[in-house]
Design brief:
The chain has one domain (8-46). The chain is built from one helix and no strands. It has one helix at residues 11-46. The chain crosses the membrane at residues 20-36.
Length: 47
């Protein structure tokens, strides 16, 4: 069962963790994109 708290003192903490999670996803997307373009460039150089 999920516990729902309606405590305004926790809102800054929730906002912080939401911001960090968006940042982590953006970093992961950037790393995967960079890895993918590197693999394509290596493939083009070898074949």
């Amino acid at each position: 069962m999920t516990i729902v708290l309606n405590d305004p003192s926790l809102w800054p903490v929730i906002s912080y963790y939401r911001g960090i999670s968006y940042f982590e996803v953006a970093c992961l997307i950037a790393v995967v994109y960079d890895w993918g373009t590197h693999k394509i460039n290596v493939y083009r150089e070898n074949y």
